[in-house]
Amino acid sequence: MSTVKTPHPIKAIRTPKATPAPKATRAAPKRKKSKKKQSKLPFWIGLGVVAAIGLLVLYVEFFTEKKQPIWPEGHSPLGNTILGIDVSKYQRKINWEKVRDNDVSFAFIKATEGVKLKDSHYERNWEGTQEVGIIRGAYHFYRPSVSPEEQARNFIQTVVLEPGDLPPVLDVEVRGKQPLNHFRGDIKEWLVHVERAYGVKPIIYTGYSFYKDYLEGYFDEYTLWIAHYNVKELQMQRTDRALLSFWQHTDRGVIEGIRGPVDCNIFYGTKKDILKLCIQPKETIDPKDSPKTAKAQR
Fold first, then answer.
1. Which of 2, 172, 211, 259 is the most exposed place for a label (fewest CB within 10 A)?
2. What is the largest CA-CA distance in the chain?
3. Could you read off the pLDDT of 130-162 as tens digits, one per residue?
4. Residue 115 CA: distances (Å) to CA of 67, 87, 262
């Protein structure tokens, strides 16, 4: 019997495992150069400076007294007007010699207000003006809510006028709640009482608008002293129906000898003219000794 050789099994050929390709290494990202942070300090400093300047401007504009010239535009010591002031306790102690040396020729001095009030600096100012040769006048601040007769008595008992003094002044600035005719009648009553006591017509002081609204045409026989600020010239003229003599052109004048602001006035005329308006030489007028005054007080 024949023998068959079986072939040897074919060995499987092993294919070598593919070696994985090396992974590509990523380049490390370049770091951005960090910008230095700019300081905000200069900005805040600048903002603070601007704010400080703004506050300073506001303070100067609204909270400081603005000096104004004592002579209004178009007037000077070389013209046909003379300069004066009006004062009260609010100007405190005044050096009247220095005031006189600053072109001041006359001064109105607050004496009384209402029924009982007497200005605490009246006597000092009254004597001080006379000592240095400043023409003086006294005024009463009118209160419409109280008796005009009692207010006149307050003034009369306080003020003694001498030759060379200006006539007494009624300062009318407050309207009150009275009917207009009653208000005007009371003003007239004060004026009549005071004229009887001193023998001279008083001067009326008031503001321009107040005069136009309430007084114009009713007190034509009285010398007028009108306050009107921030205008180049008073919008009034002297006529037979408006005996204008004084213009108060500012309440913020600065004069050596007075601490703080002061009211400044112009008299329309020369010193010779204002002396004609003053009480003429006779006897000293002490209204408390006048029989007419005694009768009016009863």
1. 2
2. 193
3. 999 999 999 999 999 999 999 999 999 999 999
4. 34, 20, 25
Distance CA 191, CA 296 (A): 13
Q: Is 283 a catalytic residue?
A: no
Catalytic residue among 65, 97, 123, 173: 173
pLDDT in tens, 28-66: 555 555 555 566 677 667 777 777 776 765 654 445 454
Strand 135-141 and strand 117-118: the pairing is unpaired
The reply to whether 173 belongs to the active site is: yes
Q: Among 86, 119, 165, 263, which one carries the catalytic annotation?
A: 86
pTM score:
0.73
- Amino acid, single-letter form, for residue 279: I
Distance CA 14, CA 152 (A): 141
DSSP 205-255: EEEHHHIIIIITTT-TTSEEEEE--S-SS-S---BTTBEEEEEEEEEEE--
Q: How far is CA 108 from CA 142, 173, 288, 290, in A?
A: 15, 16, 21, 24
Distance between CA atoms of residues 140 and 271, nearest Å: 24
As given in the structure block, the two tokens for residue 22 are 């090396």
* β-strand pairing of 117-118 with 203-207: unpaired
Beta bridge partners of 74: none
